[in-house]
Amino acid sequence: MLRILGKASSINVRKVLWTCAELDIPFEREDWGSGFKSPNAAEFLALNPCAMVPVIQDGDFTLWESNTIIRYLATRYGGAHLYPAEPIARARVDQWIDWQASELNRSWSYPLMALVRKSPDYQDRDALAAGCRDWTRNMEILDRQLEKTGAYVSGEQFSLADIPIGLSVNRWFETPLDHADFAAVRAYYDRLNQRDGYRLYGRNGTP
């Protein structure tokens, strides 16, 4: 059985849990991360030298890095409907997965630390305002894409890209800031809430 190391509240762990739900992959999960067993422990570092969750063990195979994990699971466990083999269709999925990691994910880092985690090191008003503007700009990009497709991020059908993006949209709505009125994003959020996997793992790890 697939073994998942990482606490269920972690957004990156939830990518893996949601993917497992979509593909009906049975798994066992162990709590690692802040508040639980430390990923700096020698046992964990032997699996992931970066000391970050999640890590999976699939038989004798160990893998870390959440977006790589969900791609692997879709490829390994019959997820062609989520992650197509055809090069152009796969590239459309990959570009949005990578955009989430390289652009969208970075843009929320300061607002998240300031407004949700309330870190005293992230209370500069100008930096917070800049972070909120950058996050809003990226959400506008997503809104335009969803207006174009009329459904999901990479097209008319739900794909692997919607897992990291969908979790990002949850984070957007759950962070206490002034939200621009992005109608396509709101409709997308409602659409995702029809999926069992999203209801289980998409909303901060709670049903």
Short characterization:
This protein is of the alpha+beta class.
Task: Give a quick set of tags describing it.
8% strand; alpha+beta; 9 helices; 207 residues; globular; Glutaredoxin; 4 strands; Glutathione S-transferase Yfyf (Class Pi), Chain A, domain 2
- Could you say what the CATH topology of the largest domain is called? Glutathione S-transferase Yfyf (Class Pi), Chain A, domain 2
Query: What is the H/E string?
Result: EHEHEEHHHHHHH
* Count of discrete alpha- or pi-helical segments spanning 4 or more residues: 9
* Count of domain modules: 2
Which second-level CATH architecture of the largest domain applies?
Answer: Up-down Bundle
Beta-strand content bin: 5-15%
pLDDT < 50 stretches: none
Proportion of residues in helical segments: 40-55%
Q: Order the strands across the largest sheet as they lie in space.
A: 2-1-3-4
Walkthrough of the structure:
The chain is an alpha+beta fold and 207 residues long. It folds into 2 domains: 2-76, Glutaredoxin (3-Layer(aba) Sandwich), CATH 3.40.30.10; 87-200, Glutathione S-transferase Yfyf (Class Pi), Chain A, domain 2 (Up-down Bundle), CATH 1.20.1050.10. It contains 9 helices and 4 strands. It has helices at 11-23, 42-45, 66-76, 87-107, 109-116, 125-149, 162-174, 183-192, 196-201, and strands spanning 2-5, 27-30, 55-58, 61-64. It has a 4-stranded mixed beta sheet with strand order 2-1-3-4, with helices on one face. β3 and β4 (61-64) form a beta hairpin. The chain is globular, with a radius of gyration of 17 Å. The two termini are 24 Å apart. The relative contact order is 0.14. Residues 1-81 form the GST N-terminal domain. Keywords: Transferase. This is Glutathione S-transferase. Its EC number is 2.5.1.18. One of its GO terms (molecular function) is glutathione transferase activity.
